[in-house]
Amino acid sequence: MRVLLEIFAQTLRTLWAHKLRSFLTMFGIAWGVGSLLLLVGLGEGFRSGNRKQFDQIGENVLFIFGGRAPAMNGSFTSLRQYYLTYKDYQDVRDECPDVGLVVPIIARDDIRAVSDFYQSSGRLMGVPTEFSKVRYMPMNEGRWINDLDDSQQRLVVVLGDEARKNLFPGRPALGNTILLGGFRFQVIGTAKRIGHGDDNTMNLRIFVPFHTMQNNFRPLNVGEIDNAISFLNYQPKVRELNEVAKLEVHKVIARNHGFDYRNVDSFDEWDTVRTSDQVGKIFDAMNLFLGSVGLVTLALGAIGIINIMLVAVADRTREIGLRKALGATNRSIMFQFFVEGAFLTLLSGGIGMGGAAALMAALSTLPSPPGWDTPKIVPVTAALAIGSLAFAGVVAGLYPARKAALLQPVEALRRE
């Protein structure tokens, strides 16, 4: 133990004797570790923020709308508009075995909501009970639409958070009524706020039972179609069946509207599963690039450690020769220089990790923009940094230490 303390004290004296050289070398290692953790942490913050945005839509949700199909099979110049119908929903529900849940939705943007206090112009949506199982819909007060509300076409409404604030500022909304297109609806529930920042699109929405909406507020600009809907939301039974479920839905829609399901341009849809996977691949590539940049910086710092230790061996050649003449073994000489290299590496790495953690903690106190989450230290990256540091410390210590230990005492004492 005493020998170890003496070696440690000798290491500190050596580093202090060459303060500038030691500082610059330690700065290179600390910068490499800190940049590696910070860059990957920022990338993970973007990944986490985008994942939360998708989660606030719903889990594995797909959207399909009405589209434009060839007027005749095989025609590419003449297109006709088709609109989804309630029958499309029923057929998808009954004939698509790999579709877990599917819900029809009617949406209108032209109906103004009016309370006794203010008014709001958010989107009015007619949805069935299962909508809250497909889409992310956390409740704040009251309850969600139930089967009786839908089947009896009750005049009840659930308000998004921003719609509630607009219609009932500083007042209780639950149990009160609002006017929608001349009909008086009772507020049975309010939703929690979705997302953050100034994006209020989701929070301005107002929800009524599907059949109430179908009976009183049919979709606009759909011609003579009585049972038209605005779009369908559906989920595959499991995420891995996403493409299979989508193909089944395509076949039903194409059959019902008289066009070839293989004509992908005839479908107007949004696949959040595929989009999420594509975004994930982008972030994987970004993390790989940022991690590579950090590792290169770390490698340059390790080269600096090796360089400073080689210089230390050259500067202390006479000291090494004197110690060996007095009986010091190759092992003790090697151990001393190894400890110096490892100490320099670990101290620099610890400073880099601490600096990265402190900067991430400071960033967590700032408001996060949409699509971005607080950066955090990624355990895999931290383990990689620690492993790289350990390797750098071994290389930086052993090679110069071996060179010092192999010096012959007589030759070492002759050098000036």
Structural topology:
Layout: H1 2-17, H2 19-55, E1 62-65, E2 68-70, E3 79-81, H3 86-95, E4 99-108, E5 113-114, E6 119-120, E7 124-127, H4 131-134, E8 139-142, H5 147-151, E9 156-159, H6 161-167, E10 177-180, E11 183-191, E12 206-209, H7 210-216, E13 231-236, H8 242-257, E14 268-271, H9 272-315, H10 317-325, H11 330-364, H12 379-405, H13 409-414
Description of the structure:
- The chain is an alpha+beta fold.
- The protein folds into two domains: 2-55 and 278-414, no CATH class; 62-271, no CATH class.
- It contains 13 helices and 14 strands.
- The strands form two sheets. Strands 1, 4, 5, 6, 7, 8, 9, 10, 11, 12, 13 and 14 form a twelve-stranded mixed sheet that branches.
- The protein is elongated and about 105 Å long.
- The two termini are 33 Å apart.
- The mean pLDDT is 81.
Write a short abstract of this structure.
By secondary structure, the chain is α+β, with helices and mostly antiparallel strands. The chain contains 13 helices and 14 strands.
Shape: elongated
User: What portion of residues belong to β-strands?
Assistant: 15-25%
Number of strands: 14
Helical amount: 40-55%
Mean pLDDT: 81
Report the biggest beta sheet as strand number plus sense, adding barrel if it closes.
Answer: 12 strands, mixed
Structural class: alpha+beta
Main attributes of the structure:
416 residues, alpha+beta, 2 domains, 12-stranded mixed β-sheet, two-stranded antiparallel ribbon, 13 helices
